[in-house]
UniProtKB/TrEMBL annotation:
Boundaries of every FAD-binding PCMH-type domain copy: 86-263
UniProt cross-references to Gene3D superfamilies, sorted A to Z: 3.30.465.10, 3.40.462.20, Uridine Diphospho-n-acetylenolpyruvylglucosamine Reductase, domain 2
Family, similarity comment: Belongs to the oxygen-dependent FAD-linked oxidoreductase family.
SUPFAM superfamilies: FAD-binding/transporter-associated domain-like
Protein's recorded name: Berberine bridge enzyme-like 18
InterPro entries referenced in this protein's UniProt entry, alphabetically: BBE (IPR012951), FAD-bd_PCMH (IPR016166), FAD-bd_PCMH-like_sf (IPR036318), FAD-bd_PCMH_sub1 (IPR016167), FAD-bd_PCMH_sub2 (IPR016169), Oxid_FAD_bind_N (IPR006094)
Keyword set, alphabetical order: Disulfide bond, FAD, Flavoprotein, Glycoprotein, Signal
Alphabetized PANTHER family for the sequence: OS08G0158400 PROTEIN
A GO MF label: FAD binding
Entry keyword Glycoprotein: yes
Signal peptide start-end: 1-32
Named cofactor requirement(s): FAD
């Protein structure tokens, strides 16, 4: 046992002693039951230490009385709602230095009834990677498993799950000094590879190359028995499931092997914005017809929200939309002539367009970053200091101008709500990939993915309730405009309003309600994979996939 480890163990034993003393003084009659039961947390800790040869110089295990516990817990939290005092905090935080620490966590967690929550980038919209509805659990924080090793000769890379997409983009482009290598992943650089890839992963290369999950060729995982497996040994069904089915129901992903994609060494990007006085409604309506049908070298997305415009000291509330795009051709001239022909209502001009490397374009789309400073991609710190709520829909038929006017009215009236709508265009490669190629199912027939993102700064429970209530109202309001039977949703826009498992249990019938929204016809197959690889449901969470045995 390492020096560090024994110090932690002794700290922990002190903690247990103190809490037992407090307990005894208040409830002296309860002594018998205490002396007879070994504390399960202590048993877990001893098991973990005996299973790991802790010679590493970095600390691996933290308990609530370790001084840096709080710093580590908060380090990548994006949604402050799940740091509130009422949220159950992890009994341990384990920051693995190598896969054997992950294996020991699973083996000992299973033996001593401590569930595990795996965190890569901490962007889960419902905090499921670091918070739990009730039971004590271990937080496995993969922050130290984040290497990116690129093999330019085969255009592949192994990326560890704890890397952020910013670190991945940087590793692909800067380290190899090759501007034509890229990977289709998120537009926001602090998003973690572990959660993003296992739920799909969409960004500016989506129409050309599909989701992140579509470009994974191998993986290293730890299963519910603590075994370290690769694609060859895990079975094709599990490898299929972790590409869009959410790995958290099945295993812990250590790393993915990915196929890099080609981009021109120079690409062209543009951004314009329009508000109500500039015909935003017409632009949004047209966008739905144009963006999903463009050549797959062209990705044009749209973000819109109600904002308070300051006009000469007076607040004028309006709707504004930002339309931005990536063209996988090298010249602004070409970009402009395509848009002039296909989307004249947008009136994009030469000044709105810039030529740059693909790596710089990732900073351009991230916003708030400088395209001249790629090392910003390595900054993992969360940008958020707010509570958030997200939801998602898929749109198959364009919403009419009248429809958009109704939506604007709702957004304009809601003066206390900061909510943005992001419209991510489908089409291109997404039309071609079959629904069951990987577990991520949303393909042919969709025009775009619609994401609702809300944030607020108040911390009171009443404020949270008010904001969540309004978000549900918006979601109900959108019903006639979006996909039905099922009303589909994107797993990475995790939404517990769609339903949740009862504490420690699952029901196939109940889980079908949200399972079919996230996974369409792939849900049943996912439940069968779950039954094979995790029949005891060790990897339970509020929206985990239930095992289906029959
Ligand atoms: C600011 C912001 C921007 C976003 N931008 C995009 C975007 O551009 N495109 C997009 O597609 N999505 C985007 N998302 C959504 C994002 O894809 C999901 O939140 C995703 O799950 C985040 O992954 P993570 O590793 O950061 O999160 P985490 O919170 O660490 O994990 C998310 C889920 O995956 C599980 N998990 C994580 N790592 C592993 C692992 N190694 N093995 C098994 N299970 C694991 C967790 O337990 C949890 O259930 C964004 C989210 C936010 C908050
Ligand atoms: C720890 O042990 C492993 C295997 O025994 C070895 O590969 C590694 O270099 C050691 N690390 C340190 C920091 O000594
Ligand atoms: C970049 O990588 C691609 C694909 O591996 C290769 O064809 C190309 O020659 C590389 N370019 C440079 C400048 O190394
Ligand atoms: C306020 O916003 C409306 C809608 O965008 C617009 O028509 C009007 O001109 C704006 N008023 C001022 C003073 O800018
Ligand atoms: C949140 O952070 C942003 C950017 O860092 C800052 O401008 C804003 O004032 C902060 N808000 C609160 C309530 O802390």
């Amino acid at each position: 046992m390492g020096r560090m480890a024994s110090r932690i163990l002794s700290n922990f034993t002190n903690l247990i002693t103190v809490s037992i003393l407090v307990f005894l003084s208040e409830f002296a009659f309860a002594t018998a039951s205490i002396t007879n039961t070994k504390n399960p947390h202590e048993a877990f800790l001893q098991c973990f230490l005996s299973h790991t040869c802790s010679n590493s110089t970095t600390q691996v295990i933290y308990t609530p009385d370790t001084s840096s516990y709080g710093t580590i817990l908060r380090s990548s939290v994006q949604n402050l709602r799940y740091l509130s005092p009422s949220t159950t905090k992890p009994a341990f935080i384990i920051v693995p230095a190598n896969p054997s620490h992950v294996q020991a966590t699973v083996t000992c967690g299973k033996a001593h009834s401590l569930h595990v929550r795996t965190r890569s980038g901490g962007h889960d919209h419902e905090g499921l990677s670091y918070a739990s509805a009730g039971d004590p659990f271990v937080l496995l924080d993969l922050v130290n498993l984040r290497s990116v090793s690129v093999d330019a000769s085969t255009s592949t890379a192994w990326v560890e799950a704890g890397a952020t997409v910013g670190e991945l983009y940087y590793g692909i482009s800067i380290v190899t000094k090759n501007k034509t290598l890229a990977f289709p992943a998120a537009t926001y650089p602090t998003v973690g590879v572990g959660g993003l890839f296992s739920g799909g992963g969409i960004g500016t290369l989506l129409r050309k190359y599909g989701t992140s999950a579509d470009n994974i060729v191998d993986a290293l995982v730890v299963d519910a028995n603590g075994n370290l497996l690769t694609r060859k040994t895990m079975g094709e069904d599990l490898f299929w499931a972790i590409r869009g089915g959410g790995a958290s129901s099945f295993c812990i992903v250590i790393s993915y092997k990915i196929r890099l994609v080609y981009v021109p060494s120079t690409v062209a990007v543009f951004r314009v914005d329009r508000d109500l006085s500039q015909g935003v409604t017409k632009v949004v309506e047209r966008w739905q017809h144009v963006a999903p049908k463009l050549d797959d070298n062209f990705f044009v997305r749209l973000l819109t929200m109600a904002i308070n415009d300051n006009v000469g000291g007076k607040v004028n509330r309006t709707i504004r939309a930002w339309i931005e795009g990536l063209f996988l051709g090298s010249r602004c001239g070409d970009l402009l002539s395509i848009l002039e022909k296909r989307f004249p209502e947008l009136r994009v001009e030469a000044k709105d367009c810039t030529e740059m490397s693909w790596l710089q374009s990732t900073l351009f789309f991230a916003q708030g970053y400088s395209v001249d400073n790629p090392s910003q991609l390595l900054d993992r710190r969360p940008q958020r200091n707010s509570s958030t709520k997200a939801k998602s829909d898929f749109v198959k038929k364009p919403i009419t101008e009248k429809g958009w006017e109704r939506i604007w009215k709702l957004l304009l009236e809601a003066k206390d709500q900061r909510v943005g709508l992001i419209l991510e265009p489908w089409g291109g490669r997404m039309e071609e990939i079959p629904e069951d190629a990987v577990a991520f199912p949303h393909r042919k027939g969709n025009l775009y993915n619609l994401q609702y993102f809300m944030r607020w700064f108040e911390t009171e429970e009443a404020a949270t309730r008010m904001h969540l209530k309004w978000m549900r109202k918006l979601y109900r309001f959108m019903t006639p405009y979006v996909s039905k039977n099922p009303r589909a949703a994107y797993l990475n826009m995790k939404d517990l309003d769609l339903g949740r498992n009862d504490e420690g249990k699952t029901s196939y019938a109940k889980a079908s309600v949200w399972g079919r929204k996230y996974f369409l016809n792939n849900f049943e197959r996912l439940a069968r994979v779950k039954a094979r690889v995790d029949p005891d449901d060790y990897f339970w969470n509020e929206q985990s996939i239930p095992p289906l045995f029959a």
